[in-house]
Predict the structure.
Amino acid sequence: MEHQKQVELLQRCLELTAREEQYVTDDEFLVPVDKYVDRERFDAEVARFFKRSANVAAHSSELPEPGDFVTRTVVDTPVIIVRQKDGRASAFINVCRHRGATVELRERGRCRRFVCPYHAWAYETDGTLAVVRQPHGFPTLDRAKHGLVRLPCFESAGLVWVCPEPGAVPGAPDVPTRAILDELHGLGATDSVVFASTPHIWHANWKLLVDGGLESYHFRIAHRKTIAEFFPDNTSTYEFVGSHVRTVLPRRSILDLANQSKDEWRIRDHTHLVYQLAPNGIVLMQKGYFDLLITTPLAPDRTRVDLMAIVPHPGPDGFTAKSREFWEANHQFTKKTLDEDFTLAEQIQRGIASGANDRFRFAGFEGALTRWHQQLDSKLTAAYG
Ligand code: FES
Ligand SMILES: [Fe+2]
């Protein structure tokens, strides 16, 4: 992020904090609760927002060397992501072209070729079909057309993005995504490694998990046992970059900036930044590290969340016992804080089923929620009428 932009964002937060004011951007907005439970709506959202988009699928540090791979389910497609000899990451559907077995069963590893466990067809790491056992049985097989199916894939700011539908999007970020990734790179996100990764399935609609990250009205109350003390009450700003949202949460220490030259202002020193990376990534950026959440919608009331702690590269000798202890404690604290959010989301999901509310009410200072929901609605309308 350019220094000028950091100053602009900090200035706005400093003024709000000093005046104990909220960032009010919208009128109240009413949202029908059906959109969190309706199966048809859910299917349309998955098709429109997730299946035909690049999704955050891995962190670059999971694939340090050529031949390093991870297997993932991106939305509902089994995928291999593998580092190529030229250093680029590629993604393929993890399905054999003979009779459809899963080619690579391991979650991660390093290999020269992927060998199918059913009849041992083998694929190069660039997807090419290399070996067909007893090929005389396949006289009409055109090997050139039977490599692993390639998926659009790109990598930037330490994030590997994959679209689970072949050819649905270009294998390069669009303009807003480029801008937000450049910003993350500029904030130092790139030279880092995954310290820990914790998966959990939450019984809540995927939008409820996003909603909680788009406002700070709940901080003082819901996070009173964890992070509330670090932040002024209900003070945050937001900005949309295409479909992505950057939320700035000033820490109390932002008031110190009033006595500092603007040349010395650094946004990571006095704020937490929350990036909602459409459609499925959330980056929680703090002073010395960040967390990456990868969300996967499973059903109208079920969402998988992979919480990854991404920390500065420890150097060739790896983590010391002391640094490991520090980052582990940090990870557990983040997990505890997010559990507060996602437990509330589960309660809300149950509450919807009770019929107590037919609409939710977003306040004027919850304008990011209003705008985000309006954006989703208009995209669905454009796609399905
Ligand atoms: S299904 Fe993979 S080799 Fe037969
Ligand atoms: Fe929260």
